[in-house]
């Protein structure tokens, strides 16, 4: 018996006796208890009541390839070459990069229930508790190298926003609260100033010809408070905003928007998405501080260029900043 088989039985949030679990899984009650103890390192809250058995408080929606596939639109399904769902791995981006390094992995999609070494921007760790959020990485290939990738992280953030709003449309009046989503250059998705999702792009291949890019996306869906305490900035999750939502449905919506966008990006670039991104710009016309490894710049954010560069008005003159190790924050 593997731990996933046990989790599938307990995912309904109901009580199951040790005898029942043993019969279904074909093991002794002693073996069931040994496997139940393996849930503790995953951070799952297991309740035990004498005479009733065991349950996972609140239940658990495990990632399901069939459920995700059923919710894909025809365009996304045609572009999704492989859907690889892992239980616990170090990082979906790391796994996706390895696949890309081994050959053309265009359309490879990696999902995980938990990451033990999830990656955030600027070397930060991405807090990744088991079975609560979305950790997704997609590989796509581009001809022309790094030059054709300008603005891609901003484009991906637009796709994420579209997906979140599409899912929220099924949440009734609560869904309108996602109208408050804003984008922070270059790759954060905020809700009322708190981080809801993040994006990390990593490239492998030739910087001047064919390369492959891994688009890593993390979305807080139902972040446990204990895990959230390790996050070093203000955060929020989908449950707080719109109530419980399906992770499988959200993954499908992400792929419905992301895969066609990636497929079109080399031909269309970021320019066609610039207006939409700027309509969501968290700091448009705000006073900001931009820090690089060598300087600190104060000025007024005034949007982005057609290639995704950040425009800042400094002492009456516009300066443009591109990617790299850049930190951006409001000054008021």
Write a short abstract of this structure.
Residues 82-266 form the BPL/LPL catalytic domain. The chain is an alpha+beta fold.
Proper CATH architecture of the largest domain: 2-Layer Sandwich
Strand order of the largest sheet: 3-4-5-9-8-7-6
- Element-by-element helix/strand order: HHHEEHHEHEEHEEEEHHHHEEEEE
Say which CATH homologous superfamily of the largest domain is assigned. Bira Bifunctional Protein, Domain 2
InterPro entries: aa-tRNA-synth_II/BPL/LPL, ArsR-like_HTH, Bifunct_BirA, Biotin_CoA_COase_ligase, BPL_C, BPL_LPL_catalytic, HTH_11, Transcriptional_repressor_C
GO biological process, one term: regulation of DNA-templated transcription
Pfam families: BPL_C (PF02237), BPL_LplA_LipB (PF03099), HTH_11 (PF08279)
GO molecular function: ATP binding; biotin--[biotin carboxyl-carrier protein] ligase activity; DNA binding
How would you describe the overall organization of this protein?
The structure is a single chain. With 332 residues, this protein is an alpha+beta fold. The chain has 3 domains: 3-56, Winged helix-like DNA-binding domain superfamily/Winged helix DNA-binding domain (Arc Repressor Mutant, subunit A); 65-276, Bira Bifunctional Protein, Domain 2 (BirA Bifunctional Protein, domain 2), CATH 3.30.930.10; 283-330, SH3 type barrels, CATH 2.30.30. It has 11 helices and 14 strands. It has a 7-stranded mixed sheet, with helices on both faces. It has a 5-stranded antiparallel sheet with strand order 13-12-11-10-14, with no helix packed on it. It has a two-stranded antiparallel sheet with strand order 1-2. The longest helix is centred in the C-terminal third of the chain and has 22 residues, at 247-268. It is globular. The mean pLDDT is 92.
């Amino acid at each position: 018996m593997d731990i996933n088989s046990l989790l599938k039985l307990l995912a309904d949030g109901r009580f199951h006796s040790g005898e029942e679990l043993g019969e279904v899984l074909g093991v002794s009650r002693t073996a069931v208890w040994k496997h139940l103890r393996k849930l503790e390192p995953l951070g799952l809250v297991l309740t035990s009541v004498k005479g009733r058995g065991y349950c996972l408080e609140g239940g658990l929606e495990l990632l399901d390839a069939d459920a995700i596939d059923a919710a894909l639109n025809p365009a996304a399904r045609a572009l999704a070459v492989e859907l690889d769902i892992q239980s616990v791995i170090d990082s979906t981006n790391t796994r996706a990069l390895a696949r890309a390094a081994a050959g053309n992995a265009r359309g490879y999609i990696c999902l995980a229930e938990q990451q033990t070494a999830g990656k955030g921007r600027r070397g930060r760790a991405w807090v990744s508790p088991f079975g609560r959020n979305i950790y997704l990485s997609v590989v796509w290939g581009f001809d022309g190298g790094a030059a054709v990738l300008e603005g891609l992280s901003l484009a991906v953030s637009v796709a994420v926003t579209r997906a979140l709003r599409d899912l929220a449309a099924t949440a009734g009046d609560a869904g309108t609260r996602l109208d408050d989503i804003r984008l922070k250059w270059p790759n954060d998705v905020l809700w009322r100033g708190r981080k809801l999702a993040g994006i990390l792009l990593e490239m492998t291949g030739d910087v001047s010809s064919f390369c492959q890019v891994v688009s890593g996306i993390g979305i807080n869906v139902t972040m446990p408070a204990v895990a959230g305490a390790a996050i070093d900035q203000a955060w929020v999750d989908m449950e707080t905003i719109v109530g419980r939502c399906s992770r499988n449905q959200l993954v499908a919506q992400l792929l419905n928007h992301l895969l066609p966008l990636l497929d079109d990006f080399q031909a269309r670039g970021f320019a066609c998405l610039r207006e939409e991104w700027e309509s969501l710009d968290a700091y448009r016309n705000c006073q900001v501080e931009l820090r690089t490894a060598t300087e600190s710049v104060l000025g007024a954010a005034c949007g982005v260029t057609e290639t995704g560069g950040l425009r800042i008005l400094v002492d009456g003159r516009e300066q443009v900043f591109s990617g790299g190790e850049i930190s951006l924050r409001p000054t008021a």
